[in-house]
Amino acid sequence: MRFTDKMIKGLAPKEKDYVITEKSDERGAGRLQIKVYPSGIISFQFQYYIDKKRRRIEIGKYPLFSLADARKRFYQLSESVALGHDPMVEKGVSQAEQKLLNSLATMHELITEFIEYGETEFAASTMKRLVNCFNHDLTPFITDELSINDFIEQDLARELIYKVYNRGAIHQADIFRSNLMSMFKFAIDYDNSPARYKLPNRYGQKINPIRDINIQVPTNANKRWLNEEEIKKIWHADDLPFIAQQYFRLALALGGQRIEEVYKSYAHEYNFEDNTLTIPRERIKVRDRGDHVVPISPLAVEILQEILPHRGSTGALFPHRDDPTKPAHHNTISIAYARWCKKHSMPSFSPKVLRSTCKTLMTKAGVPIHIRDILQQHNKRDVATVHYDRYDYLSEKIDGIGVWDKYLMKIIHETG
Fold it and tell me: Would 327 disulfide with which of 97, 260, 264, 342, CB 3.0-4.6 Å?
């Protein structure tokens, strides 16, 4: 079979990658091949034998590398082999280097080991989403023997991320990118940790290959926060679903804690004797210092008194509509906010914006930046703080929430 553009364009991906070899009457000078990956990527490669050992060199990916370009490169490599040279050695890949590459973990091994690491370091809810993401968008397109270097050289990460993006799941594509970024950071940190000094690399990566893959053109649009007028309007809206409005109020009153920390909270985590919310370690992002304690302001107490009668059978503050034993998914309130904003011609916002709103307006209210950061768990990450400073700053948090409570009350009750 002689390759043509029409034939190449008609190649369909299968569950596993496969190779097609172009026939040639000339023997001993290698063959031009096409490799088709499950992701749909098509790559030209050159196959040849040296000392009766088969070797392959990737030429380029189609259509960025045209068939004409591939043939030109094939003839160059074929001539080199006919003269008794090894193109791989000429390319600068020695047998020792090839042996080292072969000893590195495969992509499947990296995925498995990253998940094992994440199960000890990340919140259970985070890991559940990550595993679901990889099972749906990554592992089905990765062969068992695919090396990490091949994954990078074939630009599979970009291909798979944009596969998600192009089906309209832009937010999911961004999450997928973030998960891949974390996985390769884990690989780099592992090889470069002091415990691995002078030991062979496990993953062999020096630079995170995901860092240059962008989902959207950078813009200031993501720096959305609600001003005082918008807060007041939403706070007193009479056409916003109960759960969406009560979460909006509680999230602001608690100083902008992360979505998972409040929306998936349980009644028993709120202590009305000392007016504190204790967010358990497994549900927070910054886990080094244990549970995160947040003071409950008088305004937050009022809001909780309205919410608690509607809690689920297991105490979930915002129970799932179909299964009251479990917390609801935050997509519910995201959709509610988007619809409400569209109805009232207001720029849309996500639940995450409530955190940036508190961050911005707390400073305006007079809450010291370091107290604001402690309230929102943006405290120091140095070794001394993480491992030795176990003071929970509760009195400072109480002072900060007190200042913020007064400012928020002024916003929602201000006339005119």
Answer: 264
306: region left, alpha or beta (phi > 0 left; psi from -120 to 50 alpha): alpha
Evaluated on CA atoms 210, 14, 22, 8, the torsion sign reads: negative
Mapped onto helix, strand or coil, the DSSP state of residue 18 is strand
**How is residue 104 annotated by DSSP?**
S
Shortest CA distance to 56 belongs to which of 68, 43, 66?
43
Give the strand pairing for 270-271 and 276-279: antiparallel
| Token pair of 122 as six digits | 């990340």
Q: HSE, CB side, 13 Å, CA atoms: give it for residue 41.
A: 27
* Two tokens, residue 413: 């009750």
Give the tens place of pLDDT for each residue, 186-237.
Answer: 999 999 989 888 888 899 888 899 988 887 654 444 478 999 999 999 999 9
pLDDT at 379: 52
Predicted confidence band at 387 (pLDDT cuts at 50, 70, 90)?
very low
Give the C-alpha separation, 103 to 109, whole Å.
Answer: 12
Helix (H) or strand (E) holding 367: none
> Are 98 and 114 contacting, i.e. CB atoms less than 8 angstroms apart?
no
Quote the CA–CA distance of 32 and 46 in Å, as a whole number: 5
The 10 Å CB-count burial string (b at 16+, else e) for 339-356 is ebeeeeeeeebbbbbbbb
The two beta strands, 18-21 and 31-36, are: antiparallel
pLDDT digits (tens, 9 = 90+) for 37-64: 877 778 899 888 887 788 888 888 787 7
